[in-house]
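Look over what follows to help learners.
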Amino acid sequence: MGLLSVLFAIFTGTLVRQELVGSTKLGVFSEKALFLAEIPVTLSKYIGLDIRSPEQRFPSIAGFQGKPLQEEVYLLLSKYDGDKKKSVVELIDLRTFEVKKTWNPDINQINAMVDTSLPEFENLIINRNLKRYRMIHPFLTEDGGLIFQHGSPLVKIDKNSQLVWQNQDDVFHHSIEQDHEGNFWVPTHTFPYQIDKKYVGSNWGTYDDDAITKVSGGGEILFQKSVSNILIENNLEFLLFGYNAENFEKDPLHLNDIEPVMTDGPYWKRGDLFLSLAHRSLIILYRPSSNKIIWKGRGHTSLQHDIDILDNNRISIFNNNWKSLFNGSKIDGNNEVVIYDFSKDSYSKYFNESLGKYDVRTTTEGLSQILNNGDLFIEEQNYGRLLYFNKDASIQWQYVNRINKENVYLLNWSRILFKPEDIKKIGKIIKMEDSGE
């Protein structure tokens, strides 16, 4: 009960602080009231974020439940291991549910090499230590290493979980995707700000200036562009500063996915980028070569994540379907996988009845992947659950990251690996493991 009281005080104090700081008139509140309201915010920096699921929704499931696949498909499972009290990544053969390889890096050792005098990393050791770090959206490299982050420097480890490099030029967050040149696109919070300081001030923390950032395989930044500037330069400035007239918005965009276009098509060109801007429930197709927004989609998703290109005409979007209502924020029904068809200018929902039946409703984060054969993979991140649906919308298997009767821990943006190039790469890595190389 004591912990619950502290957490409730933090939550309540944060709301009070928002009301006080966001208003130009304190009214009956004094500066002392503001000081007291600031205490929970300060404490939260030291308590950090919980890595357990907020609810115990699946008491009968622990680990995999269901039937393995017949096709060669792998899962790069990124999870918080409640026994080890740290995040690990496992490569799992979905034909047997066998763990073929595990990565288990020493995050404290990696963090010790970061310059924590920088304002963006001053709380790194507190909130991103070994027991709280989540290996977000790890990318499996050809040499058996991983690239990952957690609102932190971008990190690469080798096949033995040893540090290869880390980039601490900016704060890296959310998705990691590789483009046709072998480089990586990752969202960042930039510092100092790339946009005009007359809009956002000059102090770190007053505005989340999301940027699209291209990083080489060796960890060097090759290109970076503020998303705020992209909107301003494409006459969409109102999306940044045309809302909430009384209070300045610190995080108006919340870039959570960059999906590179790999091949030319009738509606895009290789090198284009799809961007998910969750806090505007907006998807845009951006062309870096001309600094132009080619297309934007809005009105069919709410606080969405994870864009995938399905073919020359279609994209899929993981729609959290999270809405702020008069009695609090909630999922309006269930999460959705929304497909937009450029050739028909139409939206549709994929396996929506099945997602409703299995009550898929992660509030934040989450992702989906439609495989080439029509199967659907879902990560319900908040509740530590994975689901795999067959092309006929029936369930094949579920996985819950359960440690014991009381505790399910978070997942960290896992990947389903099924493409020929993925299978070839994994074959080499497993061969290295078996031979002891």
Summary: Confidence is low (pLDDT under 50) at residues 8-34, 40-48. Residues 47 and 153 are 21 Å apart (CA to CA).
